[in-house]
Design goal:
Strand order of the largest sheet: 4-5-13-10-11-12
Strand content: 15-25%
CATH architecture of the domain at 81-100 and 214-388: 3-Layer(aba) Sandwich
Oligomer: single chain
Number of helices: 18
Shape: globular
Bound molecules: pyridoxal-5'-phosphate
Radius of gyration: 20 Å
Largest sheet: 6 strands, mixed
CATH class of the domain at 81-100 and 214-388: Alpha Beta
Distance between the termini: 35 Å
Protein backbone atom coordinates (compact mmCIF):
# COMPACT_ATOMS: atom_id res chain seq x y z
CA UNK A 1 0.00 0.00 0.00
CA UNK A 2 1.37 3.41 -0.96
CA UNK A 3 0.36 6.59 0.80
CA UNK A 4 1.28 10.21 0.17
CA UNK A 5 1.35 13.27 2.38
CA UNK A 6 -1.56 15.51 1.38
CA UNK A 7 0.52 18.62 2.10
CA UNK A 8 3.65 17.33 0.35
CA UNK A 9 2.60 14.69 -2.19
CA UNK A 10 6.24 13.95 -2.99
CA UNK A 11 6.54 12.36 0.49
CA UNK A 12 5.48 8.76 -0.06
CA UNK A 13 5.37 5.94 2.47
CA UNK A 14 4.09 2.38 2.71
CA UNK A 15 1.51 1.15 5.23
CA UNK A 16 4.08 0.18 7.87
CA UNK A 17 5.76 3.60 7.70
CA UNK A 18 2.44 5.43 7.81
CA UNK A 19 1.37 3.46 10.88
CA UNK A 20 4.67 4.03 12.65
CA UNK A 21 4.98 7.69 11.71
CA UNK A 22 1.35 8.79 12.09
CA UNK A 23 1.89 12.17 10.46
CA UNK A 24 4.03 13.31 7.55
CA UNK A 25 6.20 16.39 7.02
CA UNK A 26 4.64 19.67 8.18
CA UNK A 27 1.95 17.70 10.01
CA UNK A 28 0.57 16.55 6.69
CA UNK A 29 -1.89 13.67 6.70
CA UNK A 30 -1.12 10.45 4.87
CA UNK A 31 -3.62 9.35 2.28
CA UNK A 32 -3.84 6.14 0.20
CA UNK A 33 -2.57 6.58 -3.34
CA UNK A 34 -5.09 4.05 -4.62
CA UNK A 35 -8.47 3.17 -3.17
CA UNK A 36 -9.50 0.10 -5.16
CA UNK A 37 -12.97 -0.54 -6.47
CA UNK A 38 -14.14 -3.71 -4.73
CA UNK A 39 -15.67 -6.45 -6.85
CA UNK A 40 -18.89 -8.14 -5.93
CA UNK A 41 -20.31 -5.99 -3.15
CA UNK A 42 -23.36 -8.25 -2.61
CA UNK A 43 -21.06 -11.19 -2.00
CA UNK A 44 -19.08 -9.14 0.50
CA UNK A 45 -22.22 -7.99 2.26
CA UNK A 46 -23.30 -11.61 2.72
CA UNK A 47 -20.17 -12.40 4.78
CA UNK A 48 -19.77 -12.18 8.55
CA UNK A 49 -18.10 -9.00 9.91
CA UNK A 50 -14.63 -10.42 10.53
CA UNK A 51 -14.32 -12.31 7.25
CA UNK A 52 -15.66 -9.37 5.24
CA UNK A 53 -13.36 -6.92 7.02
CA UNK A 54 -10.35 -9.13 6.29
CA UNK A 55 -11.25 -9.00 2.57
CA UNK A 56 -11.78 -5.22 2.56
CA UNK A 57 -8.60 -4.40 4.43
CA UNK A 58 -6.54 -6.84 2.41
CA UNK A 59 -7.78 -5.18 -0.82
CA UNK A 60 -6.66 -1.78 0.50
CA UNK A 61 -3.40 -2.74 2.20
CA UNK A 62 -2.33 -5.25 -0.45
CA UNK A 63 0.59 -7.66 -0.19
CA UNK A 64 2.63 -5.61 2.24
CA UNK A 65 1.06 -7.46 5.18
CA UNK A 66 0.87 -11.24 4.65
CA UNK A 67 -2.72 -12.50 4.50
CA UNK A 68 -2.37 -14.68 7.62
CA UNK A 69 -1.01 -11.76 9.64
CA UNK A 70 -3.74 -9.39 8.49
CA UNK A 71 -6.45 -11.96 9.15
CA UNK A 72 -5.16 -12.45 12.69
CA UNK A 73 -4.99 -8.68 13.25
CA UNK A 74 -8.63 -8.24 12.22
CA UNK A 75 -9.76 -11.25 14.23
CA UNK A 76 -8.00 -10.01 17.38
CA UNK A 77 -9.31 -6.47 16.96
CA UNK A 78 -12.96 -7.04 16.00
CA UNK A 79 -14.11 -9.19 18.90
CA UNK A 80 -17.51 -7.55 19.36
CA UNK A 81 -20.53 -6.84 17.14
CA UNK A 82 -21.89 -3.63 15.59
CA UNK A 83 -25.64 -4.22 15.55
CA UNK A 84 -28.05 -2.15 13.48
CA UNK A 85 -31.15 -1.29 15.53
CA UNK A 86 -34.39 -0.26 13.88
CA UNK A 87 -35.71 3.03 15.28
CA UNK A 88 -38.64 3.44 12.88
CA UNK A 89 -39.55 2.33 9.34
CA UNK A 90 -37.00 4.63 7.72
CA UNK A 91 -34.30 5.13 10.34
CA UNK A 92 -31.76 2.73 11.81
CA UNK A 93 -29.10 3.18 14.50
CA UNK A 94 -25.66 1.63 13.96
CA UNK A 95 -24.54 0.79 17.50
CA UNK A 96 -20.78 1.10 17.68
CA UNK A 97 -20.52 0.90 21.45
CA UNK A 98 -20.38 -2.82 22.16
CA UNK A 99 -16.59 -2.98 22.52
CA UNK A 100 -14.55 -2.96 25.76
CA UNK A 101 -14.65 0.83 26.20
CA UNK A 102 -18.20 1.25 24.93
CA UNK A 103 -17.41 3.60 22.05
CA UNK A 104 -16.75 3.40 18.30
CA UNK A 105 -13.08 4.11 18.96
CA UNK A 106 -12.64 0.50 20.04
CA UNK A 107 -12.65 -0.54 16.37
CA UNK A 108 -9.85 1.83 15.35
CA UNK A 109 -7.89 1.67 18.60
CA UNK A 110 -7.75 -2.12 18.73
CA UNK A 111 -6.87 -2.48 15.05
CA UNK A 112 -4.15 0.11 15.39
CA UNK A 113 -2.61 -1.72 18.35
CA UNK A 114 -2.53 -4.88 16.24
CA UNK A 115 -1.10 -3.03 13.26
CA UNK A 116 1.60 -1.32 15.26
CA UNK A 117 2.58 -4.53 17.03
CA UNK A 118 3.01 -6.17 13.63
CA UNK A 119 5.03 -3.40 11.89
CA UNK A 120 6.99 -1.91 14.77
CA UNK A 121 10.33 -3.63 14.38
CA UNK A 122 12.64 -3.29 17.43
CA UNK A 123 13.02 -0.21 19.57
CA UNK A 124 10.82 1.61 22.01
CA UNK A 125 7.57 3.26 21.05
CA UNK A 126 5.75 6.09 22.81
CA UNK A 127 2.17 6.62 21.80
CA UNK A 128 1.24 10.26 22.36
CA UNK A 129 -2.37 11.13 21.73
CA UNK A 130 -4.91 13.80 22.52
CA UNK A 131 -8.46 12.88 23.40
CA UNK A 132 -11.69 14.80 23.64
CA UNK A 133 -13.23 11.87 25.47
CA UNK A 134 -13.35 8.43 23.99
CA UNK A 135 -10.14 8.00 22.02
CA UNK A 136 -8.21 7.96 25.28
CA UNK A 137 -10.11 5.02 26.67
CA UNK A 138 -9.99 3.05 23.44
CA UNK A 139 -6.26 3.63 22.97
CA UNK A 140 -5.42 2.98 26.61
CA UNK A 141 -7.30 -0.30 26.65
CA UNK A 142 -6.06 -1.41 23.25
CA UNK A 143 -2.39 -0.89 24.22
CA UNK A 144 -2.58 -1.73 27.92
CA UNK A 145 0.17 -4.15 28.95
CA UNK A 146 1.87 -4.30 25.50
CA UNK A 147 5.63 -4.67 25.97
CA UNK A 148 7.92 -1.77 25.05
CA UNK A 149 5.02 0.48 24.14
CA UNK A 150 4.44 3.46 26.45
CA UNK A 151 1.25 5.42 26.12
CA UNK A 152 0.78 9.09 27.11
CA UNK A 153 -2.71 10.54 26.73
CA UNK A 154 -3.49 14.26 26.95
CA UNK A 155 -7.02 15.48 27.65
CA UNK A 156 -8.63 18.83 28.50
CA UNK A 157 -8.89 19.07 32.29
CA UNK A 158 -12.49 19.15 33.51
CA UNK A 159 -13.88 19.00 29.98
CA UNK A 160 -14.58 15.31 29.62
CA UNK A 161 -17.23 13.40 31.54
CA UNK A 162 -16.10 12.02 34.94
CA UNK A 163 -16.95 8.52 33.79
CA UNK A 164 -14.96 8.88 30.58
CA UNK A 165 -12.03 10.01 32.69
CA UNK A 166 -12.30 7.04 35.05
CA UNK A 167 -12.31 4.59 32.20
CA UNK A 168 -8.80 5.42 31.00
CA UNK A 169 -7.09 7.32 33.83
CA UNK A 170 -7.16 4.44 36.29
CA UNK A 171 -5.11 1.82 34.43
CA UNK A 172 -1.48 2.58 35.32
CA UNK A 173 1.18 0.14 34.00
CA UNK A 174 2.30 1.44 30.56
CA UNK A 175 -0.54 3.99 30.37
CA UNK A 176 0.02 7.57 31.62
CA UNK A 177 -2.65 10.26 31.44
CA UNK A 178 -2.18 14.03 31.63
CA UNK A 179 -4.97 16.54 32.30
CA UNK A 180 -4.01 19.70 30.39
CA UNK A 181 -5.36 22.99 31.72
CA UNK A 182 -6.84 24.02 28.35
CA UNK A 183 -9.30 22.79 25.71
CA UNK A 184 -9.04 19.85 23.30
CA UNK A 185 -7.69 21.92 20.44
CA UNK A 186 -4.78 22.93 22.69
CA UNK A 187 -4.12 19.26 23.53
CA UNK A 188 -4.14 18.45 19.85
CA UNK A 189 -1.75 21.33 19.16
CA UNK A 190 0.67 20.01 21.82
CA UNK A 191 0.66 16.60 20.16
CA UNK A 192 1.34 18.17 16.78
CA UNK A 193 4.18 20.22 18.23
CA UNK A 194 5.74 17.10 19.69
CA UNK A 195 5.63 15.43 16.29
CA UNK A 196 7.33 18.44 14.73
CA UNK A 197 10.23 18.08 17.18
CA UNK A 198 12.57 15.69 15.35
CA UNK A 199 14.89 15.22 18.34
CA UNK A 200 12.04 14.30 20.66
CA UNK A 201 10.45 12.05 18.06
CA UNK A 202 13.65 10.12 17.68
CA UNK A 203 14.47 9.96 21.41
CA UNK A 204 11.20 8.35 22.50
CA UNK A 205 10.00 6.68 19.28
CA UNK A 206 7.00 8.95 19.03
CA UNK A 207 3.80 7.64 17.51
CA UNK A 208 0.28 8.96 17.48
CA UNK A 209 -2.83 6.88 17.98
CA UNK A 210 -5.55 9.41 17.33
CA UNK A 211 -7.68 9.44 14.23
CA UNK A 212 -4.88 10.87 12.12
CA UNK A 213 -3.26 7.40 12.10
CA UNK A 214 -4.30 5.68 8.90
CA UNK A 215 -4.74 2.27 10.56
CA UNK A 216 -7.54 3.65 12.69
CA UNK A 217 -9.37 5.02 9.71
CA UNK A 218 -9.02 1.78 7.77
CA UNK A 219 -10.64 -0.17 10.61
CA UNK A 220 -13.55 2.25 10.73
CA UNK A 221 -14.39 1.65 7.06
CA UNK A 222 -15.46 -1.87 7.94
CA UNK A 223 -18.48 -0.98 10.05
CA UNK A 224 -20.09 1.04 7.28
CA UNK A 225 -20.20 -2.22 5.28
CA UNK A 226 -21.59 -3.96 8.34
CA UNK A 227 -24.39 -1.38 8.57
CA UNK A 228 -25.51 -1.87 4.97
CA UNK A 229 -25.15 -5.65 5.34
CA UNK A 230 -27.72 -5.64 8.13
CA UNK A 231 -30.29 -3.59 6.22
CA UNK A 232 -33.10 -5.53 4.58
CA UNK A 233 -32.17 -5.92 0.86
CA UNK A 234 -35.08 -3.74 -0.30
CA UNK A 235 -33.75 -0.88 1.85
CA UNK A 236 -30.22 -0.79 0.41
CA UNK A 237 -30.74 1.45 -2.62
CA UNK A 238 -31.05 4.94 -1.20
CA UNK A 239 -29.02 4.87 1.97
CA UNK A 240 -28.14 8.12 3.73
CA UNK A 241 -25.70 8.02 6.66
CA UNK A 242 -25.53 10.73 9.32
CA UNK A 243 -22.21 10.89 11.18
CA UNK A 244 -21.82 12.74 14.49
CA UNK A 245 -18.64 14.64 13.71
CA UNK A 246 -15.86 16.33 15.66
CA UNK A 247 -12.49 15.60 14.15
CA UNK A 248 -14.11 14.12 11.02
CA UNK A 249 -12.26 10.78 11.10
CA UNK A 250 -15.47 8.81 11.17
CA UNK A 251 -16.88 10.65 8.18
CA UNK A 252 -13.59 10.15 6.29
CA UNK A 253 -13.86 6.39 6.84
CA UNK A 254 -17.44 6.41 5.55
CA UNK A 255 -16.42 8.31 2.43
CA UNK A 256 -13.64 5.79 1.80
CA UNK A 257 -16.23 3.00 2.12
CA UNK A 258 -18.32 4.74 -0.55
CA UNK A 259 -15.23 5.13 -2.75
CA UNK A 260 -14.62 1.37 -2.42
CA UNK A 261 -18.09 0.80 -3.87
CA UNK A 262 -20.38 0.57 -0.85
CA UNK A 263 -23.79 1.83 -2.03
CA UNK A 264 -24.31 4.91 0.12
CA UNK A 265 -26.20 7.68 -1.62
CA UNK A 266 -24.95 10.51 0.53
CA UNK A 267 -23.53 11.45 3.91
CA UNK A 268 -24.53 14.04 6.46
CA UNK A 269 -21.97 15.65 8.78
CA UNK A 270 -23.77 16.41 12.03
CA UNK A 271 -22.06 18.64 14.55
CA UNK A 272 -22.75 20.47 17.79
CA UNK A 273 -22.29 24.24 18.22
CA UNK A 274 -18.68 23.81 17.08
CA UNK A 275 -19.95 24.23 13.56
CA UNK A 276 -16.92 25.16 11.45
CA UNK A 277 -17.82 22.61 8.76
CA UNK A 278 -21.58 23.29 8.40
CA UNK A 279 -20.79 27.02 8.15
CA UNK A 280 -18.04 26.33 5.63
CA UNK A 281 -20.34 24.22 3.49
CA UNK A 282 -22.93 27.00 3.48
CA UNK A 283 -20.65 29.99 2.95
CA UNK A 284 -17.44 28.61 1.44
CA UNK A 285 -15.52 30.39 4.18
CA UNK A 286 -13.32 28.46 6.60
CA UNK A 287 -13.52 30.48 9.79
CA UNK A 288 -13.24 28.41 12.99
CA UNK A 289 -14.63 30.07 16.10
CA UNK A 290 -13.14 29.43 19.54
CA UNK A 291 -14.17 25.97 20.73
CA UNK A 292 -17.19 25.95 23.02
CA UNK A 293 -18.05 23.29 25.60
CA UNK A 294 -21.22 21.34 24.80
CA UNK A 295 -23.22 18.32 25.97
CA UNK A 296 -21.63 16.27 23.18
CA UNK A 297 -18.15 17.06 24.44
CA UNK A 298 -16.28 14.54 22.29
CA UNK A 299 -17.24 16.69 19.31
CA UNK A 300 -16.02 19.96 20.83
CA UNK A 301 -13.58 20.53 18.02
CA UNK A 302 -13.50 23.65 15.90
CA UNK A 303 -10.45 22.82 13.75
CA UNK A 304 -11.14 19.29 12.61
CA UNK A 305 -7.94 17.46 11.84
CA UNK A 306 -9.28 15.13 9.21
CA UNK A 307 -10.97 17.74 7.05
CA UNK A 308 -8.15 17.78 4.45
CA UNK A 309 -8.77 14.06 3.91
CA UNK A 310 -12.48 14.70 3.36
CA UNK A 311 -11.68 17.36 0.77
CA UNK A 312 -9.11 15.09 -0.88
CA UNK A 313 -11.74 12.35 -1.28
CA UNK A 314 -14.26 14.73 -2.82
CA UNK A 315 -11.63 16.11 -5.17
CA UNK A 316 -10.26 12.74 -6.26
CA UNK A 317 -13.69 11.21 -6.78
CA UNK A 318 -14.98 14.24 -8.64
CA UNK A 319 -17.74 14.62 -6.05
CA UNK A 320 -19.26 17.97 -5.20
CA UNK A 321 -18.95 19.22 -1.62
CA UNK A 322 -22.42 20.71 -2.06
CA UNK A 323 -23.74 17.12 -1.90
CA UNK A 324 -22.40 16.64 1.62
CA UNK A 325 -25.30 17.28 3.97
CA UNK A 326 -24.61 18.99 7.27
CA UNK A 327 -26.13 20.83 10.17
CA UNK A 328 -25.26 21.86 13.71
CA UNK A 329 -27.38 21.54 16.84
CA UNK A 330 -26.94 23.59 19.98
CA UNK A 331 -27.35 22.02 23.42
CA UNK A 332 -31.01 22.86 23.73
CA UNK A 333 -31.74 21.23 20.39
CA UNK A 334 -29.62 18.25 21.40
CA UNK A 335 -31.71 17.78 24.54
CA UNK A 336 -34.90 17.93 22.48
CA UNK A 337 -33.48 15.39 20.02
CA UNK A 338 -32.60 13.00 22.84
CA UNK A 339 -36.12 13.30 24.22
CA UNK A 340 -37.72 12.80 20.79
CA UNK A 341 -35.63 9.69 20.25
CA UNK A 342 -36.53 8.30 23.64
CA UNK A 343 -40.21 8.94 22.91
CA UNK A 344 -39.73 6.85 19.76
CA UNK A 345 -38.44 4.02 21.92
CA UNK A 346 -34.69 4.45 21.39
CA UNK A 347 -32.32 5.41 24.19
CA UNK A 348 -29.26 7.31 22.99
CA UNK A 349 -26.69 9.84 24.24
CA UNK A 350 -25.99 13.40 23.03
CA UNK A 351 -23.61 12.57 20.11
CA UNK A 352 -25.92 9.99 18.57
CA UNK A 353 -28.93 12.20 19.26
CA UNK A 354 -27.44 14.98 17.12
CA UNK A 355 -26.81 12.58 14.23
CA UNK A 356 -30.35 11.21 14.56
CA UNK A 357 -32.04 14.62 14.56
CA UNK A 358 -30.10 16.04 11.61
CA UNK A 359 -30.84 12.82 9.69
CA UNK A 360 -34.53 13.08 10.53
CA UNK A 361 -34.60 16.72 9.39
CA UNK A 362 -32.88 16.01 6.08
CA UNK A 363 -34.09 12.52 5.08
CA UNK A 364 -36.17 12.58 1.91
CA UNK A 365 -39.02 10.32 0.80
CA UNK A 366 -37.79 6.94 -0.41
CA UNK A 367 -34.48 7.16 1.47
CA UNK A 368 -33.31 4.91 4.28
CA UNK A 369 -31.41 6.67 7.03
CA UNK A 370 -28.68 5.29 9.26
CA UNK A 371 -27.15 7.32 12.07
CA UNK A 372 -24.06 6.28 13.98
CA UNK A 373 -24.33 5.73 17.72
CA UNK A 374 -20.77 6.39 18.74
CA UNK A 375 -20.96 5.84 22.51
CA UNK A 376 -23.01 3.87 25.03
CA UNK A 377 -25.64 6.10 26.73
CA UNK A 378 -24.14 5.28 30.13
CA UNK A 379 -20.87 6.99 29.15
CA UNK A 380 -22.87 10.21 29.39
CA UNK A 381 -24.88 9.07 32.38
CA UNK A 382 -25.18 12.47 34.10
CA UNK A 383 -26.62 14.29 31.10
CA UNK A 384 -28.81 11.44 29.89
CA UNK A 385 -30.33 10.90 33.34
CA UNK A 386 -30.98 14.62 33.82
CA UNK A 387 -32.46 15.20 30.35
CA UNK A 388 -34.67 12.11 30.28
CA UNK A 389 -35.38 11.98 34.00
CA UNK A 390 -34.47 8.31 34.19
CA UNK A 391 -31.92 6.20 36.01
CA UNK A 392 -29.31 4.39 33.97
CA UNK A 393 -27.52 1.38 35.39
CA UNK A 394 -23.75 1.44 34.81
CA UNK A 395 -22.49 -1.28 32.49
CA UNK A 396 -19.92 -3.52 34.17
CA UNK A 397 -16.95 -2.10 32.21
CA UNK A 398 -17.67 1.37 33.56
CA UNK A 399 -18.62 0.33 37.07
CA UNK A 400 -15.33 -1.49 37.61
CA UNK A 401 -13.23 1.58 36.68
CA UNK A 402 -15.52 4.03 38.43
CA UNK A 403 -14.44 2.59 41.77
CA UNK A 404 -10.69 3.06 41.12
CA UNK A 405 -8.62 6.18 41.98
CA UNK A 406 -7.58 8.61 39.21
CA UNK A 407 -3.88 8.39 38.34
CA UNK A 408 -3.59 11.44 36.04
CA UNK A 409 -0.91 14.14 36.22
CA UNK A 410 -2.03 17.75 35.75
CA UNK A 411 -0.09 20.10 33.46
CA UNK A 412 -0.32 23.64 32.11
CA UNK A 413 -0.71 24.15 28.37
CA UNK A 414 3.05 24.40 27.93
CA UNK A 415 5.05 22.46 25.36
CA UNK A 416 8.37 22.79 27.20
CA UNK A 417 6.83 21.10 30.24
CA UNK A 418 5.34 18.33 28.17
CA UNK A 419 8.65 17.76 26.39
CA UNK A 420 10.52 17.42 29.69
CA UNK A 421 7.83 15.06 30.99
CA UNK A 422 8.10 12.81 27.96
CA UNK A 423 11.87 12.69 28.06
CA UNK A 424 12.04 12.09 31.80
CA UNK A 425 9.95 8.93 31.91
C1 LIG B 1 -18.84 9.69 21.19
C2 LIG B 1 -18.20 10.36 20.02
N1 LIG B 1 -18.97 10.71 18.99
C3 LIG B 1 -18.45 11.34 17.92
C4 LIG B 1 -17.11 11.66 17.85
C5 LIG B 1 -16.57 12.38 16.63
O1 LIG B 1 -15.86 11.53 15.78
P1 LIG B 1 -14.77 12.15 14.80
O2 LIG B 1 -13.78 12.85 15.65
O3 LIG B 1 -14.21 10.99 14.04
O4 LIG B 1 -15.53 13.10 13.92
C6 LIG B 1 -16.26 11.29 18.89
C7 LIG B 1 -14.82 11.62 18.83
O5 LIG B 1 -14.10 11.57 19.79
C8 LIG B 1 -16.83 10.62 20.00
O6 LIG B 1 -16.06 10.24 21.02
Amino acid sequence: MNLYNIKHPEEQVNFAQAVRQGLGKDQGLFFPEIIPQLGNIDELLAMPLVERSQKILSAIIGEEIPADTLNAMVKNAFTFPAPLAKVNDDIYALELFHGPTLAFKDFGGRFMAQALASVRGDGKITILTATSGDTGAAVAHAFYGLENINVVILYPKGKISPLQEKLFCTLGCNIRTVAIEADFDACQALVKQAFDDAELREAIGLNSANSINISRLLAQICYYFEAVAQLPKEKRDNVVVSVPSGNFGNLTAGLIAKTLGLPIKRFIASTNANDTVPRYLRSGEWSPNPTVATLSNAMDVSRPNNWPRVEELFKRNGWNLADLGSDALNDEETEQALKAQYAEGYLCEPHGAIAYQVLKDQLQAGETGIFLCTAHPAKFKESVERILDIELPLPEALDKHNKLPLLSDVMANDFAMLRAYLLAK
